């Protein structure tokens, strides 16, 4: 068995065994507390530029399958786990984790104490690191490069180049423009299942193209990187906000919309990544268990109450988890309603978006 290592920016070195591809990879190291869902993690474009440590100790047990990919490829820079399963068992499984990581050229590390790594990241905050396999040891220059690393140009790196149209899978009621900042497929599926024809559009699409395209609503997707970096997109969103079009934003889409209405975002110490984050819907006075993957957050106090209200908060740390526009049919959430780790969850938000489009159409008739 080949060895592999993780060197953190603070000098801590972990030694384990190599899984997946061999090589060396610089990234921001983050942890995810989900007990399952590693296939969705690997293919979620929001992890671009990051290596993910799964805190659940057994990863790969049910392999990977053709249905659960969230996008066209694996986006993580590296993958870290306590124990990687060699012999997956599941009726849908058609490949192993090791084979998938090899095919995607992603370096993996198993056999380390992931609890120790998670404690370091929780105490010091997310940190850069190099994941490397035996005989790919980094030199001084690479170590310096790792220390200075920052995820940049992320949306540009993951968005599609040409629009793609997906038909409604029930009787068509609406046409939705889905801006792809790094979209997870399940967002598009949830909309198609509710009678929406979905046009996935490149992140930098001119807002006039959307306004002239005969769409009933705009969906702003999740995506990677620092939200405040996306100045051109934020300007485009200002135009869409002013148009009166129904808009629903998820994760990066939520952060970009908040920036477009003058609020601020901040980098969190170690973010929220997992499938059991409690979020309270303030209007309903009800708390939901949500799936999350973000390292930045909207600063709730900077949301101008004359423009929007904070609609959701995280019960663990009181951070802003959603906003709702006061005068326009616009709402956003920081978490992922397209993910359903339990039977009930928050997919009702897609119904809410469809209702806004129904109302808008009804009013226009
Ligand atoms: N999943 C997302 O959309 C993440 C948003 C942003 N890149 C963050 O880390 O906060």
From TrEMBL:
Swiss-Prot/TrEMBL keywords: Amino-acid biosynthesis, Arginine biosynthesis, ATP-binding, Glutamine amidotransferase, Ligase, Nucleotide-binding, Pyrimidine biosynthesis
UniProt domain Carbamoyl-phosphate synthase small subunit N-terminal: residue ranges: 2-132
Pathway info: Amino-acid biosynthesis; L-arginine biosynthesis; carbamoyl phosphate from bicarbonate: step 1/1; Pyrimidine metabolism; UMP biosynthesis via de novo pathway; (S)-dihydroorotate from bicarbonate: step 1/3
GO molecular function: ATP binding; carbamoyl-phosphate synthase (glutamine-hydrolyzing) activity; glutaminase activity
CPSase: annotated segments: 1-174
Amino-acid biosynthesis among keywords: yes
Domain of life: Bacteria
Alphabetized SMART domains for the sequence: CPSase_sm_chain (SM01097)
Catalytic reaction equation(s): hydrogencarbonate + L-glutamine + 2 ATP + H2O = carbamoyl phosphate + L-glutamate + 2 ADP + phosphate + 2 H(+); L-glutamine + H2O = L-glutamate + NH4(+)
One Pfam family named in its UniProt record: CPSase_sm_chain
Known EC number: 6.3.5.5
Active site feature: 251, 336, 338
One GO BP: glutamine metabolic process
Record-listed L-glutamine binding positions: 46, 223, 225, 252, 255, 293, 295-296
TM stretches of this protein: none
Description of how the protein assembles with itself and partners: Composed of two chains; the small (or glutamine) chain promotes the hydrolysis of glutamine to ammonia, which is used by the large (or ammonia) chain to synthesize carbamoyl phosphate. Tetramer of heterodimers (alpha,beta)4.
Family statement drawn from the similarity comment of this UniProt entry: Belongs to the CarA family.
HAMAP family reported for this sequence: CPSase_S_chain
Function: Small subunit of the glutamine-dependent carbamoyl phosphate synthetase (CPSase). CPSase catalyzes the formation of carbamoyl phosphate from the ammonia moiety of glutamine, carbonate, and phosphate donated by ATP, constituting the first step of 2 biosynthetic pathways, one leading to arginine and/or urea and the other to pyrimidine nucleotides. The small subunit (glutamine amidotransferase) binds and cleaves glutamine to supply the large subunit with the substrate ammonia.
Protein's recorded name: Carbamoyl phosphate synthase small chain
């Amino acid at each position: 068995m080949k060895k592999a290592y993780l060197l953190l920016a603070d000098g801590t070195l972990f030694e384990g065994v190599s899984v997946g591809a061999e090589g060396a990879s610089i990234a921001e190291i983050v942890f995810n507390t989900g007990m399952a869902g590693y296939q969705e993690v690997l293919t979620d474009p929001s992890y671009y530029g990051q290596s993910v440590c799964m805190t659940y100790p057994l990863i790969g047990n049910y392999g990977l399958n053709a249905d659960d990919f969230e996008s066209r490829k694996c986006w993580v820079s590296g993958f870290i786990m306590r124990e990687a399963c060699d012999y997956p068992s599941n009726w849908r499984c058609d490949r192993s984790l090791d084979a998938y990581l090899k095919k995607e050229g992603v370096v993996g590390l198993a056999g380390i104490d992931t609890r120790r790594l998670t404690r370091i990241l929780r105490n010091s905050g997310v940190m850069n690191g190099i994941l490397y396999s035996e005989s790919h040891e980094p030199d001084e220059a690479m170590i310096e490069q790792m220390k200075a690393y920052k995820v940049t140009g992320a949306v540009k790196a993951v968005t599609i180049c040409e629009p793609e149209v997906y038909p409604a899978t029930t009787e068509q009621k609406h046409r939705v423009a889905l801006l792809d900042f790094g979209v997870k497929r399940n967002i598009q599926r949830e909309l198609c299942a509710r009678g929406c024809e979905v046009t996935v559009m490149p992140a930098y699409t001119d807002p006039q193209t959307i306004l002239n395209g005969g769409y009933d609503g705009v969906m702003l997707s999740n995506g990677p990187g620092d939200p405040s970096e996306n100045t051109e997109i934020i300007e485009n969103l200002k135009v869409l906000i002013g148009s009166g079009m129904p808009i629903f934003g998820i994760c990066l889409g939520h952060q970009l919309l908040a920036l477009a209405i003058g609020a601020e975002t901040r980098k969190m110490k170690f973010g929220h990544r997992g499938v059991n984050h409690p979020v309270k819907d303030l209007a309903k006075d009800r708390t939901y268990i949500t799936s999350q993957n973000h390292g930045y957050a909207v600063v709730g106090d900077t949301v101008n109450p004359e423009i929007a209200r904070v609609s959701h908060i995280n019960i663990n740390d009181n951070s802003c988890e959603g906003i709702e526009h006061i005068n326009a049919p616009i709402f956003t959430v920081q978490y992922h309603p397209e993910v359903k780790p339990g039977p009930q969850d928050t997919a009702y938000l897609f119904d809410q978006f469809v209702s806004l489009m129904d109302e808008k159409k009804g009013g226009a008739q």
